[in-house]
């Protein structure tokens, strides 16, 4: 049986579709609609006690797995195609594992932390808000600096490190913070390169067919967190 991929629209689970499309792995896509901001009850499935997406079921192995990073590693290990990953001893292995994990260990927390503080009642000059913004600026500058010297995050080869990172600087910005990427030309170049990959286009068309891909510098001024979720049309294709 093929992999069963549970995807919640406009979420980190887009990474799993992107990876499967790049690897040419057959999968059965089960889409879940936000309700209207958080995960719906339809994701509270056996083997998925947190009720979050992504959620993967591999019937052949009796495996049920959540967390996008864990699922990506599982699929990469199961696949015979090694083009999107590196092993110990391969050139660029350390860069690959570093940037693969930087996506969720540093970049996304910086983005989400800034998002919540932006929507708080704290004044703009509050020290905590300023710290969070500085943390996000530093993370984005770091990624931009990396992409100044290499085509892809792990070097000259597109890898799962790129797959893990794209969501944070694209779809996440619909929820906030509405940070501009205009000051990060290398990230914008990289996003253009990612968006031109057929695997990315297929994944997004299957998983989020209504969503306008947020690969430009500026995000909407009003976020989905402010609007209470996807009932707003801010994120939809024009």
Automatic annotation (TrEMBL):
Please name one Pfam family that this protein belongs to.
GST_N_3
Superkingdom in the source lineage: Eukaryota
Task: Tell me where in this chain the GST C-terminal domain is found.
Answer: 89-213
Q: Locate the GST N-terminal domain: which residues?
A: 1-83
The protein's matches in CDD domains, at most eight in alphabetical order, are given as: GST_N_GTT1_like (cd03046)
- Assigned protein family: Belongs to the GST superfamily.
- This chain belongs to the protein called Glutathione S-transferase 3
User: Taxonomic lineage of this organism?
Assistant: Eukaryota, Fungi, Dikarya, Ascomycota, Pezizomycotina
């Amino acid at each position: 049986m093929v992999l069963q991929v549970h995807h919640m629209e406009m979420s980190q689970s887009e990474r799993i579709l992107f990876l499967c499309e790049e690897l040419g792995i057959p999968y059965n896509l089960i889409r879940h609609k936000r309700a209207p901001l958080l995960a719906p009850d339809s994701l509270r499935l056996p083997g998925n006690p947190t009720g979050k997406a992504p959620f993967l079921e591999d019937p052949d192995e009796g495996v049920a797995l959540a967390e996008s990073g864990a699922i990506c590693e599982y699929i990469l290990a199961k696949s015979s195609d090694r083009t999107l990953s590196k092993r110990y001893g391969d050139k660029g292995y350390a860069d690959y594992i570093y940037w693969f994990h930087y996506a969720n260990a540093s970049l996304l927390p910086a983005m989400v932390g800034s998002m919540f503080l932006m929507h708080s009642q704290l004044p703009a000059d509050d020290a905590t808000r300023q710290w969070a913004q500085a943390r996000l600026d530093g993370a984005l500058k770091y990624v931009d600096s990396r992409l100044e010297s290499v085509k892809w995050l792990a070097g000259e080869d597109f890898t799962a490190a790129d797959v893990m990172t794209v969501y944070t600087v694209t779809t996440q910005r619909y929820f906030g913070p509405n940070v501009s990427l205009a000051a990060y030309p290398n990230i914008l170049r990289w996003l253009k390169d990612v968006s031109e990959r057929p695997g990315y286009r297929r994944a997004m068309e299957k998983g989020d067919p209504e969503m306008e891909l947020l690969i430009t510098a500026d995000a909407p001024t009003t976020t989905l967190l402010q609007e209470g979720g996807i009932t707003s049309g801010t994120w939809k294709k024009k």
